[in-house]
Amino acid sequence: MDMPTKQQAIASNRDAWNDSARHHKDNPDWPVLLDEVSRADFSCIDDTLRAVLDEVGVEGKEVVQLGCNNGRESLSLYAAGARRVVGVDQSAAFLQQARELAERSPHDAEFIEADIHHLPAALHGRFDLALITIGVLNWMPDIAEFFAHVAQILKPGGAVVIYETHPFLEMFDPEAADPHRLASSYFRSEPFVQHQPIVYDGKVEQPAAASYWFVHTLSAIFTGAMAAGLQISHFKEYPHSNREALYDQYQQQTAQLPLCFTWVAVKR
């Protein structure tokens, strides 16, 4: 497989997400979400992440969500007490959905189109808290470089909260004849490549821009963050899946894998 450069992978991922946005909106959950965000106490954040955010403290803080997708989690941060919320994503199509939701919301969230590797200077040193949720880290070709950009937009003493899929899951193929057989190395260096639209349930059988999903070990995540001047203050693994429904089959096993994790680091 010909490996793309970092810049080519980032650009192709952007195109893939822009193409996929219409498939996410063409879903019976969309009109329900439009109605729900009109409530001041709207939140789609699950109990696991909510507990971590409560521990870190959101009340009165200026918060940024990196890789905010359609903004539903960004808008949920107001229910946790955030004073100001900014969502950042490189997909213009998903940010259009975020702005549609924001128009229904009583809260004044801001959504910015930007590649995380080229964040506007106005965001530097601005935030008390950065939130990164499911399916962000693996779109990053270089995890250490990513954390350097995250640290750049935090105030001294600011925290980054991550709620992500566990990298152990990248070793399995949930659609294989034997989904419990190891299918890929934990230390895989080349990205997974997909040429169909990115959707969470099922597949859309039509061509799309290539999307590149990069595997990062826990050690790469930890050392990348520490190199960026982030001091890790919390790390916890969980037996439940926070990924697509296909991965639910890995829950409640006698020999249970860690399926997701929460992680907090503070800018020194």
UniProtKB/TrEMBL annotation:
Keywords: Methyltransferase, Transferase. Gene3D superfamilies: Vaccinia Virus protein VP39. Residues 63-158 form the Methyltransferase domain. Residues 1-11 have a biased composition (Polar residues). Residues 1-29 are annotated as: Disordered. CDD domains: AdoMet_MTases. GO terms for molecular function: methyltransferase activity. One of its GO terms (biological process) is methylation. It holds the Pfam family Methyltransf_25. Coiled coil: none annotated. This is Methyltransferase domain-containing protein. It comes from Pseudomonas prosekii.
